[in-house]
Amino acid sequence: MDKIKIIGGNQLIGKIFISGAKNAALPLICATLLTKEKVSLSNMPILSDITSLNALLDVLGVQIEEKTVSSGKNTSKTYTYQSKNFKNLIAPYDFVRKMRASYYVLGPLLTREGHVELSLPGGCAIGARPMDIHLNSLEQMGAQIEIKNGYVIADAKKGLKGANIIFPKASVGATCNILMAATLAKGTTRIENAAKEPEIGDLIDLLNAMGAHIEGRDTSVLTIEGVSKLKGAEHAVISDRIEAGSYAIAAAITKGKIELLNANPEHLLAPLNILRAMDIKITEKPESIIVDARNADMTGQDIMTDYYPGFPTDLQAQFMALMTVVPGAALVTENIWENRFMHVPELMRMGANINIHGYASAIVRGVKKLSGAPVMATDLRASFALVLAGLAAEGETIVNRVYHLDRGYEKLEEKLKNVGADIERIKEPD
Ligand code: EPZ
User: Fold this and answer.
1) 173 CB under 6 A from ligand 1?
2) Nearest CA to ligand 1 atom 41
3) Which helix (H) or strand (E) element contains residue 77?
């Protein structure tokens, strides 16, 4: 398994191009299942999560054309999907286990074909990750659902029908699945307490371009008037706010200056406000954000993760890495996932001073220096937090299990090397 070697201490200065958003791209790919016509998605990031989901669509019988698009600043993919007829309606365990977002095939296949079998993904390193909200909502729309041999077997032979649904939690995944299911349902569906993340707005834009009737974008009440059929469309995926936030923290932790090209500051209001409160200069331009921490007199800041537009859970680990080397104390509270402090013991191995209280809060007291060490993370964002700690630490850090990073950070070493990091991938046979 590949590793990443970092020699810490370099100040990062330069420009980083932010790729298309992984968490927007995954539901968009599954939305293409809703029509027989061609749907093209551009600005797609080059990531293993995208390849894994494409492999599942291939098994379902979807035709996929791939094009690599290079502009001066960046290389991305454009994928064109066409699902005229499905070869099968089963999302097998081997795919879902590798790629949880495979569960986005549930809503589209059920509403279009009236049947789907989806392996239940199970828990993962950050929490139990149940699917009850997805399944209860589909039942309210008339689906018959059975759990058998680890699979969700869902039927809606006469099609789904509109319903008034109130989500107990503003789940991103359930909002996407139910939105997609409702586009082809009979009648009107109303979702209350829907998630408002920018990735949902991106999905609504594609679905409406395909002929869906969805109102309420960016609000917690979505109204979907079902139509009998959707058509092809072309859509460019939004830029990745979590990748942008991660590199903004890289500028902060190295007291450097990075311009995040193709980043949208409107999607990062809470994290940018925290960085501003730390005396970091943030300049917002029409298509970039400049993060300048060279002269910042930083002190610890408390954060509490929350549903959008609150502080994103997907930046909690990275922010905590920053707090480990900033003078003062910071209270970090995780409100979305029940088990998202797995990076704490690894940061402590590098000399961080962190105390976990209960299961949702941690107090971080900044130390003068971290020291490099071999470390290992159990999920994508925690792995990036360890890369950040390595960039700030004295000496050599080896981050193991790089496959986590490859799931969600495109060309990580190249992007960091271009702004001055001493970082390299050590290739090792699996
Ligand atoms: C999405 O996961 C993201 N993944 C996650 O990013 C992100 O952390 C999360 O949203 C929150 O922002 C993708 O977009 C692929 P949820 P999702 O359903 O949709 C509970 C990353 O690092 N819940 O909004 O799975 C759940 O347990 C990943 O890129 C139920 O109780 O998250 C959690 O506590 C990690 N029942 C809360 O809701 C359900 O049926 C939010 O989960 C569904 C969710």
Assistant:
1) yes
2) 171
3) strand 75-82
Q: Which of 46, 55, 124, 153 is catalytic?
A: 124
Taking only the tens place, the pLDDT of each residue in 233-267 is 999 999 999 999 999 999 999 999 999 999 999 99
pLDDT tens-place string over residues 360-373:
999 999 999 999 99
Residue 138 CB–ligand 1 contact under 6 Å: no
Question: Considering the chain, what is the average pLDDT of its residues?
Answer: 96
Mode of pairing for the β-strands spanning 115-119 and 90-91: parallel
- Using one digit for the tens of pLDDT, what is the confidence trace for 14-71? 999 999 999 999 999 999 999 999 999 999 999 999 999 999 999 999 999 999 999 8
Q: Given this model, what pLDDT does residue 98 score? A: 87
Question: Ligand 1 center to residue 1 CA distance, Å?
Answer: 27
**Among 336, 380, 404, which residue has the most ligand 1 atoms within 8 Å of its CB, making it the best to mutate?**
336
Domains of the chain, CATH where assigned = 3-19+239-426 (3.65.10.10), 22-226 (3.65.10.10)
Decide: 174 in ligand 1 pocket, CB within 6 A. yes
Handedness of CA 175, 181, 184, 189 (dihedral sign): negative
- The response to whether residue 194 sits with its C-beta less than 6 Å from ligand 1 reads no
Ligand 1 centroid from CA 346, angstroms: 24
For residue 29, give Cα distances in angstroms to 175, 195, 288. Answer: 15, 19, 26
Percentage of residues in the chain with pLDDT exceeding 70? 100
Q: What is the pLDDT of residue 429?
A: 79
Q: Which residues are within 8 A (CB) of 295 and not within 5 positions of it... i.e. 6 or more apart?
A: 281
Active site residue 30: no
Tell me 282's DSSP state: E
